[in-house]
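Section 4.2 – Deliverable D4.2 (structural model, holo form)

The reporting period included a commitment to supply a predicted holo structure for the target in complex with 4-fluoro-L-phenylalanine. Inputs used:
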Amino acid sequence: MARPVKSIHGEWTSRWAFILAATGSAVGLGNIWKFPYVTGENGGGAFVLVYLLCIAAIGIPVMMAEVLIGRRGRQNPINSLKSLAEEEGRSRLWRWLGGMGVLAGFFILSYYSVIAGQSMAYIPRTLFGVFEGVTPDGASSIHTALVSDPERLLAWHTLFMLITAAVVTRGVQRGLEKSVRVLMPALFILLVMLVGYAANTGEAFTRGVHFLFDADFSKLTANSVLIAMGHAFFTLSLGMGAIMVYGSYLPRKTSIFKVSVTISIMDTGVALLAGLAIFPLVFANGMEPGAGPSLIFETLPIAFGHMPGGEFFGALFFLLLVFAAWSSGISLVEPIVAWMVENHNLSRRNATMLATSVIWLLGLLTVFSFNIGQDWTLFGKTAFGLLDYLTANIMLPLGGLLIALFAGWMMKKSSTAEELAIGNGVLYYFWLILIRFVSPVAILIVFANLTGLLDILNK
Ligand code: PFF
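Output (structure tokens):
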């Protein structure tokens, strides 16, 4: 199958349009909701260090690989992998790697949308002063009241799926480019303001900084290393084809190296700022860093409830968080829709409707796992916990491993060098070593460590 010169879905108007869209995909609930709570649950500094190492040694090289595969293939991940495999004389079975990504997109968005829905529900709550002067217990019971009501959660989940579908139907470039240009910088400024507020908590701020950056390795377990690695994939939107499909709309001339580094730095910056804003509040109010997925919904309202103009800033913050989740949600459906349009001859509109309806339905599992289905557990996890663990900690790293193997070992050096266009010098070989050896070996070690394989070998 010959690969097209240009994607049938169009192209980004500039390098910055791609950077913004891919940053829009990367920056989302993963940075502001998930990073603080997984860091809290896994003991702080040492976890953060492993996460940062994973971003640098695995995340950036795999992101470059995804963009290069997407841009060279110029189609949805399944077809891009299939035509590149054929071109390189490899098995067409590689297309199943794209298939796993499409499936991961369904799973992730189904719970992502429910959490984004909760953030939406917080916009009117903050705006109308529900949190004014609130105590930690008060904030906690307001959140519990929301999640224990399946109808309300369902309504917000539905609204989030609808706005996501609305943009995807229009086509990612037209729908997305404009909004991300303004919203990302605004979110960044508001986060800096929140860190400024947290800095006024005095001793609690120092405790927050120590919690984030002092590495105490005794707190690190095999499972928390896996979670740190999984989170690096999740936060950079890697391992499932989202960045690959955005790469397929990237103009030829753009430097893949520069864009990947820029996106990763921005994404990591937002996560660290979120941590710096949230942990001081946790300590100042005598709360638990390991509170789990409800962490931001219980800490930030306390800050907004006590600062001057908190209604306004709070509502604005949750609004921007919803926008950040929105631009990530869009990138989760795009590979699925591009595949349905290219392979199944559906119109963009019908493909979007079909995909989002299935995801909406799957989302019911997460909606119920906070209330009536709290006790429906498998391996000790609720449906939400299971979907999150399966996707972030298994499917994305496995996808990343296979992408690294494909780009590093299945594609000819001449092909990858041509696409990366960083010359044949040190930088290219640095990438090649990372993608051929460092990333795959690191991912395999983390998996082996988790399954206890390393302990067996040690005996
Ligand atoms: N990177 C997004 C976040 O941090 O919120 C989540 C995400 C988007 C994961 C797209 C995977 C993906 F393909």
